[in-house]
Specification:
CATH superfamily: START domain
Mean pLDDT: 91
CATH topology: Alpha-D-Glucose-1,6-Bisphosphate, Chain A, domain 4
Number of strands: 7
CATH architecture: 2-Layer Sandwich
Low-confidence stretches: none
Strand order of the largest sheet: 1-7-6-5-4-3-2
Number of domains: 1
CATH class: Alpha Beta
Strand content: over 45%
Largest sheet: 7 strands, antiparallel
Structural class: alpha+beta
């Protein structure tokens, strides 16, 4: 599955970058996130509960940040296992571009693979769920970052 989009965040680039690297802020924005902890400066561990169609699963996994170019871009790669529900793994290239002193464009390109019961649900359901989750994340993230701008 591939997905790409961009979002205008009403905050300066440095604030958006800081929030993208803050586990507490990310945890508040990721749908179903139960925990998100920094294991090292470039690695986080997470537990997320997701419902995709009739399948509900708790995913535990690891996320690694690479190709860091603060405060402009990074690559995020992760993989998680949901037991019998299956697995998910993939990555995203994230780029921040200042649009003005108070607004930043966040662009992302995602490439992900799934397996197990989740893969049997069908591409349309998976794609629509992924787009819905991404939309929920970015609405929450944009509101959180904008509200923390001084």
């Amino acid at each position: 599955m591939q997905m790409n989009d961009s979002q205008l965040i009403p905050a300066p680039q440095e604030k958006v970058w800081a929030a993208l690297n803050d586990p507490e802020k990310l945890k508040q924005c990721i749908p179903g996130c139960q925990s998100l902890d920094m294991a090292s400066p470039n690695e986080m561990t997470a537990t997320v509960v997701l419902k995709v169609g009739p399948v509900k699963a708790t995913f535990g996994g690891k996320v690694t940040l690479s190709d860091l170019d603060p405060p402009n871009s990074y690559r995020i790669c992760g993989e998680g296992s949901g037991g019998i529900a299956g697995f998910a793994k993939g990555g995203a290239a994230v780029k921040l571009t200042p649009e003005s002193a108070d607004a930043t464009r966040l662009t992302y390109e995602v490439d992900a693979q799934i397996g197990g019961k989740l893969a049997q649900l069908g591409g349309r359901l998976i794609d629509s769920t992924a787009k819905k989750l991404a939309s929920q994340f970015f609405v929450s993230f944009s509101e959180l970052v904008a509200s923390s701008v001084e």
